[in-house]
Amino acid sequence: MRVFDFDGTIYRGDSTLDFYLFCLGRQPSLAWQIGRQLRYMAKALWRGNGRTVVKEGFYSFIPCVTEIESCVRDFWEKNSNKVNNVVLKRVRKGDLVISASPEFLLRPFCDARGFQLIASAVDPMTGECMGANCRGEEKVRRFLATYSREAIEEFYSDSTSDEPLARCAQQSFLVRKKSIVPFFEGS
């Protein structure tokens, strides 16, 4: 099995941030949420609540998005070309995308290309995180829970925070804009 991170690997940029900006452009009234989001996120950081709670603060704009499903569809119509073709040409039907981005956001992109998906479970109506953020060690846990008998032949990511999953793969690669290099020196 070949496994790919999404943001910064297949997608050039951060799809969640781009989706947020897309929603703001489409629905400028969401801007009033920014102060609330920042307060929520700052409070969560100050209390040491962790990344999942901080992200939930960021996602607090989601309940205010009009017609979230059509917004996601329109987002991908506009942004589906924002891919790293060097990486995308290596991804085949049936390969796995694993990401910290919300599943509801990535599902249309992955389904249209026949990619399997493991991502952060975020309620598309409330913005509530329905489990841990799918990042670092959580990616390993989620992969093993779903594919315990599958070996990872190749793993691709742009981030060293994915080292736990990279260590599980037979071969791991670090994506740098237009090049792909071994994840670990001397590999």
Automatic annotation (TrEMBL):
Signal peptide: none annotated. This is HAD hydrolase, family IB. InterPro entries: HAD-like_sf, HAD_sf. It comes from the Bacteria. It comes from Adlercreutzia caecimuris B7. Pfam families: HAD (PF12710).
